[in-house]
Description:
The complex is a heterodimer.
Chain A: E1 23-27, H1 32-44, E2 68-77, E3 83-88, E4 94-101, H2 115-122, E5 126-127, E6 130-131, H3 132-142, E7 145-150, E8 155-162, H4 166-178, H5 184-201, H6 205-218, H7 232-237, H8 240-250, E9 256-262, H9 266-277, E10 299-305, E11 311-319, H10 328-338, H11 345-353, E12 357-364, E13 372-380, H12 384-397, H13 404-416, H14 425-437, H15 444-453, H16 457-467, E14 473-479, H17 481-491, E15 495-499, H18 501-505
Parallel strand pairs in A: 3-9, 10-14, 10-15
Antiparallel strand pairs in A: 1-2, 2-3, 4-8, 4-9, 5-6, 7-8, 11-13, 11-14, 12-13
Chain B: E1 7-9, E2 20-22, E3 27-30, E4 36-41, E5 47-54, H1 68-75, H2 87-94, E6 98-103, E7 108-115, H3 119-132, H4 139-158, H5 165-173, H6 188-193, H7 196-206, E8 212-218, H8 222-233, E9 256-262, E10 268-275, H9 283-294, H10 300-308, E11 312-320, E12 326-334, H11 340-356, H12 361-378, H13 382-396, H14 402-410, H15 414-424, E13 431-437
Helix pairs in contact in B: 1-4, 3-8, 9-12, 9-15, 10-11, 11-15
Amino acid sequence: MRNAMKNxxxxxxxxxxxxxxxxxxxxSIFNSSRIVRIAVLFVVSCxxxxxxxxxxxxxxxxxxxxxLKVNPIQNFTLSNGLRVIVYEKNEVPIIQMxxxxxxxxxxxxxEKLGLAGMTANMMDEGAAGRSSxxxxxxxxxxxxxxxxxxxxHNSGVTLRSTVSKFDASLKLFADILIRPDFPATELERLKKxxxxxxxQGFDQPRVIAAAASxxxxxxxxxxxxxTSAGNEKxxxxxxxxxxxxxxxxxxxxxxxxxxxxxxxxxxxxxxKLETAIGGWKxxxxxxxxxxxxxQVEDRxxxxxxxxxxxxxxxxxxxxxxxxxxxxxxxxxxxxxILGGSFTSRLNSNLREKNGYAYGANSGFSxxxxxxxxxxxxxxxxxxxxxxxxxxxxxLNGMTKPVSDEELTKAKNYVALSFPDNFSSVGSxxxxxxxxxxxxxxxxxxxxYIAKVMAVTKDDVRRVAKKYLxxxxxxxxxxxxxxxxxxxxxxxxxxxxxxxxxxxxxxxxPKL
Amino acid sequence: xxxxxxxxxxxxxxxxxxxxxxxVPYEQFTLKNGLNVILHVDKTTPTVTVNQWYHVxxxxxxxxxxxxxxxxxxxxxxxxxxxPEGKFDEWLEAAGGSNNGSTNVDRTNYFEDIPSNALELAxxxxxxxxxxxxxxxxxxxxxxxxxxxxxxxxxxxENRPYGYAFLMLSESLYPASHPYSWPTxxxxxxxxxxxxxxxxEFFRLYYAPNNASLSIAGDIDPVKTKAMVExxxxxxxxxxxxxxxxxxxxxxxxxxxxTIEDRVQLPRLYMAWHSPxxxxxxxxxxxxxxxxxxxxxxxxxxxxxxxxxxxxQDVSAFQSSSKLGSMFVISATARAxxxxxxxxxxxxxxxxxxxTTPPTQREVERARNQYEASFIERLESVNGKAxxxxxxxxxxxxxxxxxxxxxxxxxxxxxxIATVAVRYLKDNERVVxxxxxxxxxxxxxxxxxxxxxxxx
Lengths: 511, 456
């Protein structure tokens, strides 16, 4: 594989949209002046050479930018108050349903860490009197995918099936969503599986680094700083009653919404949903507010020893922005330049220029309150200090003005690749879920491209200064301490704090 | 909707009959220089994918140059005569496009996902590297990508728990002379040895239009696209015929057993067998057998090892299909305090059972339905379709082999599954590797001497 880049991540959460509007978008992606700008860029950056019969001296000029036709987003409310958002996409006979419940690990009490995830994962372990194995057999026999999972602010039950198997799949989905049994024997089995997987996490440098970046940036008492997987003690303590209580408190139609994308007719679908899940009862759900966390202080290098590691896992972290921030689009563009695309500065530097790594990237996890900013790379052990120095150079470099060319490229990349988000039922469902969850404006998709294109050089510099202050960074390194510590010290980038995996993953389970 | 249906669903009343008829209309033509071109229109979104296959993979490498096909894949993005270094990616990103490539034992693929107005840009870039890569080749480009590939190897294999498993499996299954005996990522030693002359020779031999296939899918106008392909690729000269690959059928004369000490806490078992080549008889049966053994909670190995006995944390089984021959693999991770010998004993019991008693009709149908769903899912994206068109063309000469491929799975009955298990999963012709924590060789399978991964 040539590269393993990932784009800036954005974690979905919160917000609910009122009313029921039907929108029909015709997105015109570009105005003509933008096209001219791309053409200019090509002429400037091209070497003039001719020898072949075809004129290859410059790349072909792009034709007019195509428009993306977004189908209507149709809003409905079931008799039990469940909001349903339908997007018809009829090319492939597949249906995707994402039921989003607005509760996750942030709703867990401190002594029950991991409860949201366990509750979700137990939902298909027995429902409406069917055993775990019976449910699994029926789902697999349909060739459908039905599953539940828990996140930070949300949990979800999803279904994906072909049209011909949809009715049968929906019946199973409904049983899992509104009639889960939470059998005690299955809970005991899953507890052992969870604890074993926490145990396995100690083998994996990336798992240690991920846990470290949460707990060292937000602190162990903040909902974003706790390990949402829980630990041996909390998981061992789960009872069937704990799960049932979490479920009956939060899994309510008035605390959820359903996004359906695919080869459906909305009216028919709504009738089916009414029959299948219309009986799901409302409840009194109190919302949980997550406090905004304090920014990290000072610049520290938290060093986890992994003897004989071939690479050091580096994560440079601080607190970024929330999803509803006015700086959303400037940050999106700024991060694209820094580490959100293949030609970004971090990847160009650490990979292409220096060859220290297979890749480097950065991203802002945007949540209801500011989540982490992380710049990341796995670098060869003997270049750890050099690589960290390059991270610092690039983060600091972002506070200087970017070139027109770099800005245009980043904006075009973000804006022009937007239609790709509408190519599969899965990605459309994710887009719409985010829109509903954060109560983004009805014309959000329509204005997306214009908002990206409106970002200026000054915006980029302003948000870089505001969010990439390198005086306050939590730098996490998981690597071969004996090989890297001295050189890291010599960089004087930050005080080195020796760490143990148990500091961030909790005590090693006793198995 | 502007798009015609490209998947037509037709239910039949017969349970075992194929109930999905796949229709992926395409147009195919060959340029004078031998370049095969496949076009497929899908106007769902205003995007296009340009998918280019070169019919060369790590199975074509010379001894002492393992990993070269993949290293070469990296070099293909570093610019060509009319595309200065770095501009391949910059120009594509400025047009809203992204790209990647991948190499396996049989082939190397490249793709650009782009807004439809950037099609000609992608064709320009792809044709320039096909025609004029060496005009701008340099030692520094090679050195730069070599360092990156070494880090890819570290990241994907060396620094990953059990990461040496597949490096060791291919080496153990195949004799050193067989082109599948070395891993696609190559050895560090061979990556270091790759020279600029190797780059030139490899390009001239394998990267000619007559050894490639270009599949373009998405929001395209076939007439205009055809003209663009002619314009940009037509002038590239045909290369020499590619030398035939050594097609020795590999087999094992005896069971090979070994133990590897790794920086892990839980032991993991790998078992591997030679199995029939992709699309040949037995290949689809083994796909379904893999699912009967380890697909879902009711599969035989999962249910016994993970669900009932709870002596394993996970289990998986799969048929890894390739052109010259395939590999059937079972792996399972032991729970703390359990040994791989215990896991092997249960796996052996289940293999014996499936050989003597065919699976039930429902087990086979469940496996087939799961397979069919994942098959249809791949057809949702233009990228997936373009790649499959190229794949089928390479393997069968017919890009539209979707229904023939799927039909194989509908022709399978329970007895067929038992038959392939007996025929291919022989106890005395397999590789068994036990990964154990350092110093805990007693947790491994029996009769499995410790081997080193040094230099692998």
